[in-house]
Amino acid sequence: MEKRFAEQNKEPIPDETPLVDILPIQEGSVDVGSRESLAQVVEAPLLGACQMLYDKGIETLMSSANSNDIRGGNAYIDINYTRLSDENKKIAEELGGRMFKMHGPEPRIVCVKITFPVDTTTTVGDIRKVSIETCSRFVQQ
After folding, report:
1. Which of 11, 43, 88, 90 could disulfide-link 84, Cβ–Cβ 3.0 to 4.6 Å?
2. What pLDDT was estimated at residue 106?
3. Angle at CA 40, nearest 5°, toward 106 and 33?
4. What pairing do the DSSP bridges indicate for beta strands 98-101 and 74-80?
5. Tell me, what's the pLDDT at 1?
6. Are the beta carbons of 69 and 75 closer than 8 angstroms?
7. 123 Cβ partners below 8 Å, 6+ apart?
8. Are the C-beta atoms of 60 and 102 separated by less than 8 Å?
9. pTM higher than 0.90 for the full model?
10. What confidence tens digit (pLDDT) does each residue in 88-141 have?
11. Is the sign of the CA dihedral 1, 68, 46, 132 positive or negative?
């Protein structure tokens, strides 16, 4: 029987682990006050990329890279577009990020969704690699 990772950030997850074995983190809407607390709300495949964004002063609002994302065909990171520097806004646009307004009370936050294609053959390592390569394009702000 294969292991499915519900609390995946409590133990290292090998790169060869299929994305279908990553269960969603149910915790959400948590104010991330530190780099270390990202592990509570970010699934293992995107944790390195979200930590990189945090280190660059870029606010991640949501992210998802788990078995549920296979159905939709994309894992993703939602970034607060409003708080990006002009240079990082340009980078986000070049990456083809889809702009939208985060649901919730007015005024709604303008976000950019950076997506990473996934399917049943995608591994944790595949998402780690592409998300870190993508997020490395952003600059310190």
Report:
1. 88
2. 60
3. 60
4. unpaired
5. 37
6. yes
7. 15, 16, 17, 18, 19
8. no
9. no
10. 999 999 997 777 777 666 677 889 999 999 999 999 999 999 999 999 999 999
11. positive
| pLDDT per position as a tens digit, 52-88 | 999 999 999 889 999 999 999 999 999 999 999 999 9
- With tokens 């340009």, the residue in question is 90
Lowest mean pLDDT among 9-13, 17-21, 63-67, 123-127: 9-13
For tokens 């990329």, the residue is 49
Residue that is written with structure tokens 């149910």 in the block: 26
Task: Please state the length of the chain.
Answer: 141
Tokens of 113: 């969704």
Strand partners, 57: none
Distance separating the N- and C-terminal Cα atoms of the chain: 46
